[in-house]
Backbone:
């Protein structure tokens, strides 16, 4: 479904936003926890090479990202420890929303998307900042890969 | 109605052993009337992934901070919060959390601002409970709300504001942040988010004692002897000292406040919760950089 408010937002991210905003504040936490549980394992070639991953300094917990671009398609991988479910949830929303999109689609995502999910009331604005930092790093990595 | 104290030998050496309980003590008393267990974590979702059976959740950011003003909630909000968690004024509260009880100590300090008398920490916190294979549940407890009186917060005794710190210069200050933040290489803890301070460094004359030094490998507090060596030995505190501790927003220094007040018995220890995010952005306050403590500025 195309979000009429924001035509540049990829369908999956728009859907995620609708899902969060349809819920009360307490249930948003539960949905974020569901996302945390759905963060895919790293593929083997990255598990063996943690040095390829980039640490997201804006997050309170250790979270690492890796972006691959093949034939104009973006693949996004992320990992964070189980004792950091909030961070895992943030990463999972972005991985599910961005993986498989074209470079142009990813770069068109508004930088303030994390702030539009209604999570500030559920987890605090300070914590949402970690997700904003994550998105910024993903977009920078995509640009780097394309330029390389 | 207060639940009996944990008489564990390790705690007896501390100044106020009644402020700590062990995991074994708690495991035997879960569900006991007059006792409420509170989980308070840095990660807001950890409680939902599994918590000590019967424990209620209080989040430092969502529950204890005023949503608009940079301050703690007021007396009405605190009374409503505690009543909704089944905590009465005479309830024994045991708080535990992630990361060596960092945020649990912060919650305990806020409870103390409101004069809640019997509030204790679980030595070793969430990590030790889990490491020992003790039970967790995802079941949210059914709470029977109780009446909690509206009691005004008393900031004077254990909370310091910027003006108090300026007047305090010359007396002991403990900076509990990382060495990099102390020296001025950076304004945030390594790998932590930028919380906005325009200048880097420390309050002149403050001794650097990173908060985590008070914790042992397993997340429990170090022994009385070890803690004395750090705070009385290295940092040079002596009996009778009035001390102010600070960090970045006042959470890590709550942990040190707990150690100095309840484990080592210093009186009149205050936590400067404005901390570096205020001091490092305030106009014309003195700052020292580098690893040295620096001098009291001439007025």
Residues:
């Amino acid at each position: 479904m195309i979000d009429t408010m924001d035509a540049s937002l990829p369908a999956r991210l728009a859907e995620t936003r609708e899902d969060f905003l349809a819920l009360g504040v307490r249930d948003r936490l539960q949905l974020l926890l569901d996302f945390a549980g759905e963060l895919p394992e790293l593929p083997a070639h990255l598990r063996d090479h943690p040095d390829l991953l980039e640490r997201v300094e804006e997050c309170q917990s250790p979270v690492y990202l890796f972006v691959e671009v093949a034939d104009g398609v973006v693949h996004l991988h992320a990992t964070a420890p189980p004792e950091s479910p909030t961070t895992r949830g943030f990463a999972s929303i972005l991985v599910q929303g961005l993986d498989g999109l074209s470079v142009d689609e990813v770069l068109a995502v508004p930088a303030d998307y994390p702030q539009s999910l209604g999570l500030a009331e559920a987890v605090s604005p300070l914590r949402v900042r970690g997700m904003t930092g994550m998105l910024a790093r993903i977009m920078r990595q995509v640009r780097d890969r394309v330029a390389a | 109605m207060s639940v009996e104290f944990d008489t564990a030998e390790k705690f007896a050496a501390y100044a106020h052993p009644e402020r700590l309980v062990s995991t074994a003590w708690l495991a035997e008393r879960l569900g006991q009337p007059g006792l409420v267990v509170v989980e308070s974590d840095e990660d807001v979702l950890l409680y939902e992934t599994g918590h000590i059976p019967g424990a209620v959740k209080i989040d430092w950011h969502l529950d204890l901070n005023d949503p608009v003003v940079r301050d703690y909630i007021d007396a009405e909000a605190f009374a409503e919060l505690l009543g909704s968690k089944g905590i009465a004024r005479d309830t024994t509260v045991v708080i535990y959390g992630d990361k060596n009880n960092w945020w649990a100590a912060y919650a305990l300090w806020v409870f103390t601002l409101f004069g809640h008398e019997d509030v204790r920490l679980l030595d070793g916190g969430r990590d030790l409970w889990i490491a020992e294979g003790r039970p967790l549940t995802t079941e949210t407890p059914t709470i029977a709300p109780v009446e909690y009186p509206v009691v005004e917060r008393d900031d004077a005794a254990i909370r310091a504001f910027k003006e108090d710190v300026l007047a305090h210069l010359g007396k002991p200050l403990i900076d509990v942040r990382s060495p990099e933040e102390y020296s001025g290489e950076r304004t945030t803890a390594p790998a932590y988010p930028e919380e906005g301070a325009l200048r880097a460094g420390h309050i002149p004359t403050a001794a650097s004692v990173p908060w985590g030094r008070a914790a042992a490998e397993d997340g429990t507090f170090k022994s009385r002897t070890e803690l004395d060596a750090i705070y009385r030995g290295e940092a040079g505190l002596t009996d009778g000292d009035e001390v102010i501790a600070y960090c970045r927003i006042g959470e890590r220094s709550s942990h040190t406040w707990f150690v100095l007040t309840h484990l080592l018995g210093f009186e009149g220890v205050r936590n400067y919760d404005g901390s570096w995010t205020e001091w490092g952005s305030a106009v014309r306050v003195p700052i020292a950089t580098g690893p040295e403590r620096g001098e009291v500025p001439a007025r």
Observations:
- The mean pLDDT of chain B is 94.
